[in-house]
Amino acid sequence: MATSPARLLGIGTALPAHSVSQEDAATLARQLCCDQKEQERSVQALYRRSLVESRGSVLLGPEDGRSLLERQSLFGPSPTSTGARMVAFEEHAGGLAAAAARKALSRCAVAPSDLGDLVTVSCSGFFAPGVDVGLVRDLGLAPGTGRTHVGFMGCHGALNGLRVARGLCAARPGSRTLLVAVELCSIHFQYGWEPERIVANALFADGAAACVLGPSTDIPGVREADSWSLLDVGTHLFPGTEDLMTWKIGDHGFVMSLSAAVPEVLEGSLRPWVEEWLAHNGLGLSDIASWAIHPGGPRILSSVEKALLLPRQACTVSREVLARHGNMSSPTVLFLLERLQARHAPLPCVALAFGPGLVAEGALFG
Q: What global pTM score does this model have?
Protein backbone atom coordinates (compact mmCIF):
# COMPACT_ATOMS: atom_id res chain seq x y z
CA MET A 1 0.00 0.00 0.00
CA ALA A 2 1.43 3.39 -0.96
CA THR A 3 2.19 5.69 1.93
CA SER A 4 0.92 9.27 2.02
CA PRO A 5 3.56 11.94 1.46
CA ALA A 6 5.23 13.53 4.46
CA ARG A 7 3.88 16.96 5.24
CA LEU A 8 5.77 20.06 6.31
CA LEU A 9 3.93 20.66 9.58
CA GLY A 10 5.88 23.59 11.02
CA ILE A 11 8.96 25.69 10.30
CA GLY A 12 11.02 27.74 12.75
CA THR A 13 14.05 29.98 12.21
CA ALA A 14 16.59 31.60 14.52
CA LEU A 15 19.26 34.27 14.14
CA PRO A 16 22.18 35.45 16.27
CA ALA A 17 21.43 38.19 18.79
CA HIS A 18 23.48 40.76 16.90
CA SER A 19 23.99 41.70 13.26
CA VAL A 20 26.19 43.98 11.20
CA SER A 21 25.39 46.27 8.29
CA GLN A 22 27.13 45.47 5.04
CA GLU A 23 28.69 48.93 5.10
CA ASP A 24 30.36 48.23 8.45
CA ALA A 25 31.39 44.74 7.31
CA ALA A 26 33.09 46.27 4.27
CA THR A 27 34.95 48.70 6.53
CA LEU A 28 36.31 45.80 8.60
CA ALA A 29 37.28 43.90 5.44
CA ARG A 30 39.21 46.88 4.13
CA GLN A 31 40.95 47.16 7.49
CA LEU A 32 42.03 43.50 7.60
CA CYS A 33 42.46 42.67 3.90
CA CYS A 34 43.92 45.69 2.14
CA ASP A 35 47.15 47.62 2.09
CA GLN A 36 46.55 49.50 -1.17
CA LYS A 37 43.87 51.98 -2.21
CA GLU A 38 43.06 49.90 -5.30
CA GLN A 39 42.39 46.88 -3.09
CA GLU A 40 40.13 48.95 -0.86
CA ARG A 41 38.08 50.05 -3.87
CA SER A 42 37.76 46.42 -5.03
CA VAL A 43 36.55 45.29 -1.60
CA GLN A 44 34.01 48.09 -1.47
CA ALA A 45 32.67 47.12 -4.90
CA LEU A 46 32.48 43.39 -4.04
CA TYR A 47 30.51 44.04 -0.87
CA ARG A 48 28.15 46.43 -2.64
CA ARG A 49 27.46 44.03 -5.52
CA SER A 50 26.58 41.23 -3.08
CA LEU A 51 23.16 42.88 -2.54
CA VAL A 52 23.46 41.95 1.15
CA GLU A 53 22.36 44.73 3.49
CA SER A 54 22.85 43.13 6.91
CA ARG A 55 23.92 39.80 8.41
CA GLY A 56 23.97 38.06 11.76
CA SER A 57 27.04 36.61 13.45
CA VAL A 58 27.44 34.76 16.74
CA LEU A 59 30.79 36.51 17.14
CA LEU A 60 29.26 39.97 17.52
CA GLY A 61 28.59 41.90 20.70
CA PRO A 62 26.07 44.75 20.98
CA GLU A 63 26.40 48.08 19.20
CA ASP A 64 27.76 50.10 22.11
CA GLY A 65 30.02 52.63 20.46
CA ARG A 66 32.89 50.22 19.83
CA SER A 67 34.30 49.59 16.38
CA LEU A 68 33.27 46.43 14.55
CA LEU A 69 36.75 44.98 15.13
CA GLU A 70 36.24 45.49 18.87
CA ARG A 71 32.64 44.14 18.79
CA GLN A 72 33.65 40.73 17.39
CA SER A 73 35.40 38.09 19.45
CA LEU A 74 37.54 36.01 17.09
CA PHE A 75 39.37 37.90 14.35
CA GLY A 76 42.32 40.25 14.41
CA PRO A 77 45.46 40.95 12.43
CA SER A 78 46.87 37.46 13.19
CA PRO A 79 45.42 34.28 11.60
CA THR A 80 42.83 32.38 13.68
CA SER A 81 43.37 28.64 14.07
CA THR A 82 40.82 26.03 13.04
CA GLY A 83 40.79 24.82 16.64
CA ALA A 84 39.73 28.23 17.93
CA ARG A 85 36.98 28.38 15.31
CA MET A 86 35.67 24.97 16.38
CA VAL A 87 35.54 26.17 19.97
CA ALA A 88 33.30 29.00 18.78
CA PHE A 89 31.10 26.53 16.89
CA GLU A 90 30.69 24.30 19.93
CA GLU A 91 29.86 27.31 22.10
CA HIS A 92 27.18 28.82 19.87
CA ALA A 93 25.69 26.24 17.46
CA GLY A 94 23.55 24.32 19.94
CA GLY A 95 21.68 27.31 21.32
CA LEU A 96 20.82 28.64 17.87
CA ALA A 97 19.69 25.19 16.69
CA ALA A 98 17.50 24.70 19.77
CA ALA A 99 15.84 28.10 19.32
CA ALA A 100 14.83 27.24 15.74
CA ALA A 101 13.63 23.78 16.78
CA ARG A 102 11.44 25.13 19.58
CA LYS A 103 9.74 27.52 17.14
CA ALA A 104 9.08 24.75 14.64
CA LEU A 105 7.60 22.48 17.31
CA SER A 106 5.45 25.23 18.80
CA ARG A 107 4.00 26.15 15.42
CA CYS A 108 2.57 22.68 14.91
CA ALA A 109 1.94 21.83 18.58
CA VAL A 110 4.06 18.68 18.39
CA ALA A 111 5.55 17.59 21.70
CA PRO A 112 9.29 16.80 21.61
CA SER A 113 8.55 13.42 23.20
CA ASP A 114 6.36 12.52 20.20
CA LEU A 115 9.22 12.75 17.69
CA GLY A 116 10.55 9.51 16.28
CA ASP A 117 13.66 10.86 14.60
CA LEU A 118 15.99 13.86 14.57
CA VAL A 119 17.98 14.88 11.49
CA THR A 120 20.68 17.53 11.93
CA VAL A 121 22.50 19.39 9.14
CA SER A 122 25.70 21.43 9.27
CA CYS A 123 28.87 21.97 7.27
CA SER A 124 30.54 24.66 9.38
CA GLY A 125 31.66 22.80 12.49
CA PHE A 126 32.45 19.51 14.17
CA PHE A 127 32.44 18.23 17.74
CA ALA A 128 31.14 15.13 19.51
CA PRO A 129 28.85 14.57 21.26
CA GLY A 130 27.39 17.04 18.79
CA VAL A 131 24.45 19.34 18.21
CA ASP A 132 22.15 16.32 17.85
CA VAL A 133 22.86 15.05 21.35
CA GLY A 134 22.48 18.55 22.73
CA LEU A 135 19.05 18.85 21.11
CA VAL A 136 17.89 15.55 22.59
CA ARG A 137 18.90 16.85 26.02
CA ASP A 138 17.75 20.48 25.73
CA LEU A 139 14.43 19.85 23.95
CA GLY A 140 13.45 16.86 26.07
CA LEU A 141 13.42 14.32 23.23
CA ALA A 142 13.02 10.68 24.20
CA PRO A 143 16.33 8.83 24.71
CA GLY A 144 15.28 6.44 21.94
CA THR A 145 14.91 9.18 19.33
CA GLY A 146 16.81 8.20 16.18
CA ARG A 147 19.62 10.58 15.24
CA THR A 148 21.06 11.15 11.76
CA HIS A 149 23.56 13.86 10.87
CA VAL A 150 24.00 15.27 7.35
CA GLY A 151 27.45 16.83 7.35
CA PHE A 152 29.64 18.89 5.04
CA MET A 153 27.13 19.01 2.17
CA GLY A 154 27.15 22.81 1.80
CA CYS A 155 24.31 25.12 0.88
CA HIS A 156 21.94 22.36 -0.25
CA GLY A 157 22.34 20.39 2.99
CA ALA A 158 18.81 21.07 4.25
CA LEU A 159 17.39 19.51 1.07
CA ASN A 160 19.54 16.44 1.69
CA GLY A 161 18.10 16.49 5.20
CA LEU A 162 14.56 16.62 3.82
CA ARG A 163 15.30 13.52 1.75
CA VAL A 164 16.45 11.69 4.88
CA ALA A 165 13.49 12.92 6.94
CA ARG A 166 11.04 11.92 4.20
CA GLY A 167 12.51 8.43 4.12
CA LEU A 168 12.31 8.09 7.89
CA CYS A 169 8.65 9.13 7.91
CA ALA A 170 7.91 6.59 5.19
CA ALA A 171 9.76 3.84 7.04
CA ARG A 172 7.84 4.48 10.25
CA PRO A 173 4.22 5.31 9.32
CA GLY A 174 2.65 7.72 11.76
CA SER A 175 5.99 9.02 13.08
CA ARG A 176 7.18 12.61 13.00
CA THR A 177 10.71 13.78 12.28
CA LEU A 178 12.47 16.99 13.30
CA LEU A 179 15.00 18.45 10.87
CA VAL A 180 17.42 21.11 12.18
CA ALA A 181 20.04 22.94 10.08
CA VAL A 182 22.53 25.27 11.75
CA GLU A 183 25.50 27.08 10.23
CA LEU A 184 27.99 29.52 11.73
CA CYS A 185 29.63 30.68 8.51
CA SER A 186 31.12 33.81 10.10
CA ILE A 187 33.57 31.77 12.16
CA HIS A 188 35.32 30.85 8.90
CA PHE A 189 35.85 34.30 7.43
CA GLN A 190 39.31 34.51 5.89
CA TYR A 191 41.06 37.87 6.03
CA GLY A 192 43.97 38.92 3.84
CA TRP A 193 44.18 39.77 0.15
CA GLU A 194 42.47 36.73 -1.40
CA PRO A 195 39.70 38.02 -3.72
CA GLU A 196 37.84 34.68 -3.88
CA ARG A 197 37.68 34.52 -0.10
CA ILE A 198 36.64 38.16 0.13
CA VAL A 199 33.62 37.29 -2.04
CA ALA A 200 32.66 34.59 0.49
CA ASN A 201 33.16 37.04 3.37
CA ALA A 202 30.76 39.43 1.63
CA LEU A 203 27.96 36.87 1.32
CA PHE A 204 27.89 34.39 4.18
CA ALA A 205 26.24 34.65 7.59
CA ASP A 206 24.98 32.65 10.58
CA GLY A 207 21.53 31.18 11.16
CA ALA A 208 19.47 28.12 12.02
CA ALA A 209 16.20 26.70 10.78
CA ALA A 210 14.08 23.69 11.65
CA CYS A 211 11.00 21.92 10.38
CA VAL A 212 8.74 19.11 11.52
CA LEU A 213 7.66 16.50 8.99
CA GLY A 214 4.82 14.10 9.56
CA PRO A 215 2.22 12.01 7.78
CA SER A 216 -0.84 14.23 8.16
CA THR A 217 -2.32 17.26 9.84
CA ASP A 218 -4.27 15.51 12.56
CA ILE A 219 -2.94 18.20 14.88
CA PRO A 220 -5.31 20.74 16.47
CA GLY A 221 -4.67 24.23 15.08
CA VAL A 222 -2.74 23.09 11.99
CA ARG A 223 -4.74 23.59 8.80
CA GLU A 224 -4.28 21.25 5.84
CA ALA A 225 -3.66 24.25 3.55
CA ASP A 226 -0.76 25.40 5.75
CA SER A 227 1.10 22.08 5.77
CA TRP A 228 2.63 21.43 2.37
CA SER A 229 3.21 17.87 1.20
CA LEU A 230 6.78 16.93 0.27
CA LEU A 231 5.97 15.15 -2.97
CA ASP A 232 9.46 14.40 -4.28
CA VAL A 233 13.15 15.18 -3.97
CA GLY A 234 15.68 15.23 -6.78
CA THR A 235 19.40 15.59 -7.29
CA HIS A 236 21.79 16.11 -10.20
CA LEU A 237 25.58 16.03 -10.30
CA PHE A 238 26.88 18.18 -13.15
CA PRO A 239 29.68 16.15 -14.83
CA GLY A 240 33.20 17.56 -14.80
CA THR A 241 32.48 20.30 -12.27
CA GLU A 242 34.29 18.98 -9.18
CA ASP A 243 36.67 21.93 -9.00
CA LEU A 244 34.09 24.69 -9.39
CA MET A 245 32.95 24.75 -5.77
CA THR A 246 34.94 23.29 -2.88
CA TRP A 247 34.84 23.43 0.93
CA LYS A 248 37.96 22.14 2.67
CA ILE A 249 39.44 22.16 6.15
CA GLY A 250 42.54 24.31 6.44
CA ASP A 251 44.85 25.23 9.29
CA HIS A 252 43.09 28.57 9.69
CA GLY A 253 39.44 27.62 9.24
CA PHE A 254 37.43 25.98 6.49
CA VAL A 255 38.30 27.36 3.08
CA MET A 256 35.77 27.79 0.28
CA SER A 257 36.54 28.16 -3.40
CA LEU A 258 33.84 29.35 -5.77
CA SER A 259 34.59 29.57 -9.48
CA ALA A 260 33.12 32.33 -11.61
CA ALA A 261 32.04 29.53 -13.98
CA VAL A 262 29.32 28.25 -11.60
CA PRO A 263 26.63 30.64 -12.90
CA GLU A 264 27.54 29.69 -16.48
CA VAL A 265 27.13 25.98 -15.72
CA LEU A 266 23.74 26.58 -14.12
CA GLU A 267 22.61 28.77 -16.98
CA GLY A 268 23.58 26.17 -19.56
CA SER A 269 22.79 22.87 -17.82
CA LEU A 270 20.17 23.32 -15.11
CA ARG A 271 17.01 23.39 -17.21
CA PRO A 272 17.26 19.91 -18.82
CA TRP A 273 17.56 18.24 -15.44
CA VAL A 274 14.73 20.25 -13.83
CA GLU A 275 12.45 19.51 -16.77
CA GLU A 276 13.24 15.77 -16.62
CA TRP A 277 12.72 15.65 -12.85
CA LEU A 278 9.42 17.52 -13.01
CA ALA A 279 8.23 15.31 -15.88
CA HIS A 280 8.57 12.26 -13.61
CA ASN A 281 5.98 13.97 -11.43
CA GLY A 282 3.68 14.81 -14.35
CA LEU A 283 4.63 18.50 -14.28
CA GLY A 284 6.34 21.06 -16.49
CA LEU A 285 8.08 24.31 -15.65
CA SER A 286 4.92 26.28 -16.38
CA ASP A 287 3.03 24.29 -13.74
CA ILE A 288 5.25 25.50 -10.88
CA ALA A 289 3.53 28.36 -9.07
CA SER A 290 6.22 29.26 -6.51
CA TRP A 291 10.00 28.98 -6.30
CA ALA A 292 12.39 28.82 -3.34
CA ILE A 293 15.79 29.33 -4.99
CA HIS A 294 18.73 29.34 -2.60
CA PRO A 295 20.37 32.79 -2.85
CA GLY A 296 23.97 31.71 -3.20
CA GLY A 297 24.61 35.20 -4.56
CA PRO A 298 23.11 37.64 -7.04
CA ARG A 299 24.67 35.92 -10.06
CA ILE A 300 23.37 32.52 -8.97
CA LEU A 301 19.83 33.87 -8.81
CA SER A 302 20.00 35.64 -12.16
CA SER A 303 21.50 32.53 -13.79
CA VAL A 304 18.72 30.30 -12.47
CA GLU A 305 16.14 32.79 -13.71
CA LYS A 306 17.70 32.74 -17.18
CA ALA A 307 18.08 28.96 -17.25
CA LEU A 308 14.46 28.28 -16.26
CA LEU A 309 12.99 31.32 -18.03
CA LEU A 310 11.57 32.61 -14.76
CA PRO A 311 10.26 36.13 -14.28
CA ARG A 312 12.31 38.21 -11.85
CA GLN A 313 9.50 38.16 -9.28
CA ALA A 314 9.91 34.39 -8.95
CA CYS A 315 12.99 35.06 -6.80
CA THR A 316 11.59 37.97 -4.79
CA VAL A 317 11.72 36.05 -1.50
CA SER A 318 15.23 34.80 -2.29
CA ARG A 319 16.48 38.36 -2.76
CA GLU A 320 14.69 39.52 0.39
CA VAL A 321 16.38 36.88 2.53
CA LEU A 322 19.77 37.54 0.90
CA ALA A 323 19.47 41.27 1.59
CA ARG A 324 18.34 40.95 5.18
CA HIS A 325 20.25 37.88 6.37
CA GLY A 326 22.94 37.03 3.80
CA ASN A 327 23.69 33.48 2.64
CA MET A 328 23.37 31.30 5.75
CA SER A 329 24.27 28.15 3.80
CA SER A 330 22.04 25.15 4.57
CA PRO A 331 19.29 26.80 6.72
CA THR A 332 18.60 29.44 4.07
CA VAL A 333 16.17 27.42 1.95
CA LEU A 334 14.01 26.83 5.04
CA PHE A 335 13.95 30.60 5.63
CA LEU A 336 12.57 30.90 2.09
CA LEU A 337 9.92 28.23 2.65
CA GLU A 338 8.87 29.86 5.92
CA ARG A 339 8.25 33.17 4.15
CA LEU A 340 6.44 31.57 1.25
CA GLN A 341 4.13 29.65 3.57
CA ALA A 342 3.44 32.78 5.63
CA ARG A 343 2.38 34.56 2.43
CA HIS A 344 0.17 31.62 1.37
CA ALA A 345 2.23 31.14 -1.80
CA PRO A 346 0.47 29.01 -4.40
CA LEU A 347 1.44 25.39 -5.01
CA PRO A 348 3.19 23.47 -6.41
CA CYS A 349 6.45 24.95 -5.13
CA VAL A 350 9.98 23.91 -6.06
CA ALA A 351 12.99 24.52 -3.79
CA LEU A 352 16.45 24.44 -5.38
CA ALA A 353 19.92 24.77 -3.89
CA PHE A 354 23.46 24.15 -5.11
CA GLY A 355 26.62 22.87 -3.48
CA PRO A 356 30.03 21.26 -3.98
CA GLY A 357 30.03 18.65 -6.67
CA LEU A 358 28.73 20.75 -8.51
CA VAL A 359 25.34 19.41 -7.39
CA ALA A 360 21.79 20.70 -7.64
CA GLU A 361 19.26 19.48 -5.09
CA GLY A 362 15.52 19.97 -5.40
CA ALA A 363 12.36 19.47 -3.37
CA LEU A 364 8.82 19.53 -4.77
CA PHE A 365 5.95 20.58 -2.54
CA GLY A 366 2.25 20.37 -3.29
A: 0.95
